[in-house]
Specification:
Number of strands of chain B: 3
Strand content of chain A: 35-45%
Strand order of the largest sheet of chain B: 1-3-2
Shape of chain B: elongated
Oligomer: heterodimer
Largest sheet of chain B: 3 strands, mixed
Radius of gyration of chain A: 16 Å
Helix content of chain B: 55-70%
Number of strands of chain A: 11
Structural class of chain B: mainly alpha
Number of helices of chain A: 3
Largest sheet of chain A: 8 strands, antiparallel
Largest interface: A-B, 50 and 52 residues
Number of helices of chain B: 20
Distance between the termini of chain B: 59 Å
Helix content of chain A: 10-25%
Strand order of the largest sheet of chain A: 1-4-5-6-10-9-8-7
Distance between the termini of chain A: 24 Å
């Protein structure tokens, strides 16, 4: 989820994206991304495993900004595409870190949320943190996920940089915790090109008990 | 390292102007400017003759070209025609020269560019309760043009260094730099210089206010509505800040302009001054609501889903002063649902139930009414609400999910 915030901040400060790693020691080769190899990997807090069909870039978590249950990947950089994993977000927790005093806030997750409520929470995430000025739900339908009754949510949004992006989220609430894999990419070219990767990642997803 | 620092996207330009447009939202410290003294300084078909002004016009023409092609604009011909007619009515001598664009951005803002084109944000239309209020904002913006504020501001000694801002704007509108809208323009650090270029002095804001009040009254609108707009804006900012336990919004217009109350007082005095006893003034509420009917649900959606409960609740209650309806009750429920505090699900359920009792309840009110009933264990009633939802919206994007729930 953090790629949303990062996207906004990078643009706001007018610095190149790489400059975001200023927390690390840039000149010694520290990067904000780490390589994900083509094999079974644990994501988020480790309770979910997936196998990517090709190498990906995993955004390194910063303690001060990231939620432990959420992990972000990208192929071409966060402006163009991103896959996020939510690995068992507990009731009462948020998808992202945010100030309690911010005027606009992403709603908190609750264990008894129905798919339309989860979808509305994601929509607010895009509007509040991603700067979406237009958001369209394309479809919300039942879909098995992690061996249970989950849902698939398709959507598209127009962001402040005047680019249309399109996304698909597949998720389920299991024992009151939210498991979700979300793909969001520029609507032209990138969405269609990377969707098969996303589908293969979703198909490979397993709970690690 | 900072290659993008001097690039300004057209997006940012919109916001830059927006901050400028904070125009509308500035305080006054000096003695009140009298409406009767506000003589327009430009006539119909005005074209600049001085070199510096011609230069600014050239840049602004390019900016307008970019803005007019932006996909953030709402291009509904009925709505844009309505706005054009309105500025054609209250725009004074330059009325026929103005162009006006409607941007799909959920924030209170309107701005006038120095060449006579205005950009109005959809969030502003949402907040207007009647045509007189909107006409007041537009008349105020026209006032900036009619009083030649942009060039006067430019020629002011302290603005000379802003040559960099102009250069940056040129680079920005030329290139296709991407800027991401954050819903809070002060966060856009790259706009620092642009803001100073676009912001008018308090004296100029006072002039635009006085000119606006005068144009409003001259065209038969209730001039007091301009003060009411300002009152609503102060109320919303205060409600939002109070809700998050702050004194006021960080970076809000009040930070730089400390006396909103004196501005309000001046607007009221000016309105009284131009009011002719016994004359009937119109506020055009019915006409206004009919004109914006097609985008009102969308605008409410944009606002409420930002989950700023203090502001949204204040706004909905302000709009409801003219009467509750199904649409407003539904969005009241949405405010509670997204706020998501203890007990909010029950509050939201009550609002949805109230919403569906109105004949104008939107289909989505039935869906959320159904979900509330389902979660409360009232499944038979939930099924019937969902059924109603699908009848109203057979091709709903979540129809597959709803059908699964109904079983």
């Amino acid at each position: 989820m953090n790629h949303l915030t990062r996207l906004a901040l990078a643009c706001a400060s007018g610095v190149a994206l790489s400059a975001c790693s200023s927390l690390g020691t840039g000149e010694y080769g520290y990067s904000s991304y780490a390589l994900v190899r083509v094999r079974q990997v644990n994501v988020g807090d480790g309770s979910l495993t997936v196998t990517p069909p090709r190498p990906y870039n995993r955004h390194r978590a910063f303690l001060w900004s990231d939620v432990r249950d959420v992990e972000d990947w990208t192929l071409n950089g966060p402006y163009l595409d991103g896959i996020s994993f939510v690995s068992g977000l507990k009731g009462g927790a948020y998808l992202i870190r945010q100030s309690k005093r911010a005027d606009q806030q992403v709603p908190k997750f609750r264990s008894d949320m129905t798919p339309p409520e989860i979808v509305a929470m994601l929509e607010s995430l895009y509007r509040v943190k991603g700067g979406a000025v237009e958001f369209r739900t394309l479809s919300l339908q039942p879909r098995p996920f992690l061996g249970t009754n989950g849902f698939q949510f398709d959507y598209e949004h127009l962001d402040g940089d005047e680019l249309w992006r399109k996304g698909r989220a597949v998720g389920a609430v299991i024992d009151g915790k939210l498991y979700l894999i979300l793909f969001d990419a520029a609507r032209s070219h990138y969405y269609g090109t990377i969707l098969p990767d996303f589908e293969s990642i979703v198909a490979s997803a397993q709970l690690r008990r | 390292m900072c290659a993008r620092c001097f690039e300004v996207s057209r997006r940012s330009l919109l916001i830059g102007g927006g901050a400028a447009a904070a125009a509308l939202t500035t305080g006054i410290a000096e003695a009140r400017v009298l409406p009767k003294d506000m003589v327009p300084l430009v006539g119909p078909g005005y074209k600049p003759t001085d070199k510096d002004e011609q230069g600014i016009w050239q840049l602004m023409d390019r900016a307008e070209e970019e803005i007019s092609g932006s996909n953030l604009l709402i291009n509904d011909p009925k709505l844009t025609g309505y706005l054009r007619d309105l500025i054609g009515k209250v725009g004074g001598p330059a009325a026929k020269d103005f162009r006006i664009y409607l941007a799909h951005i959920p924030e209170f803002n309107a701005m006038m560019f120095p060449t006579g084109f205005a950009v109005v944000f959809s969030g502003l239309l949402l907040r207007m309760r009647n045509e007189a209020q909107l006409a007041g904002v537009i008349a105020h913006e026209s006032g900036h043009f009619l009083r030649r504020h942009m060039i006067r501001s430019w020629r002011d000694e302290r603005h000379k260094t802003d040559i960099f801002a102009i250069a940056a704007m040129a680079a920005g509108v030329g290139g296709a730099a991407g800027g991401v809208y954050l819903g809070d323009y002060v966060q856009l650090a790259q706009l620092g210089t642009i803001l100073s270029l676009f912001s008018y002095s308090r004296a100029m804001e006072a002039e635009a206010d006085a000119m606006g009040v005068r144009l409003l009254a001259e065209n038969g609108y209730q001039p007091l509505e301009m003060a009411t707009v300002w009152e609503q804006l102060i109320g919303e900012e205060t409600a939002s800040a109070r809700y998050r336990r702050k004194r006021r919004r960080r970076g809000s217009l009040f930070d730089t302009h400390p006396s909103p109350d004196s501005r309000l007082a001046d607007l009221k005095l000016s309105a009284a001054e131009v009011t002719v006893a016994g004359k009937a003034y119109d506020n055009g509420r019915e006409r206004y609501l009919a004109e914006i009917a097609s985008i009102r649900p969308m605008m409410l959606d944009d606002q409420v889903k930002l989950n700023d409960p203090g502001a949204s609740q204040y706004l909905i209650e302000t709009l409801a002063r003219d009467g509750w309806n199904g649409l407003l009750r539904y969005y009241e429920g949405e405010v509670w649902r997204l706020r998501n505090r203890h007990g909010d699900d029950a509050r939201a359920a009550l609002s949805y139930a109230a919403a569906v009792a109105y004949p104008d309840a939107p289909a989505d009110a039935w869906r959320w009414h159904g979900i509330s009933l389902m979660k409360a264990g009232r499944s038979a009633e939930a099924k019937s609400a969902f059924g109603r939802y699908l009848t109203m919206k057979p091709d709903a994007s979540d129809a597959a999910w709803v059908r699964q729930v109904i079983g």
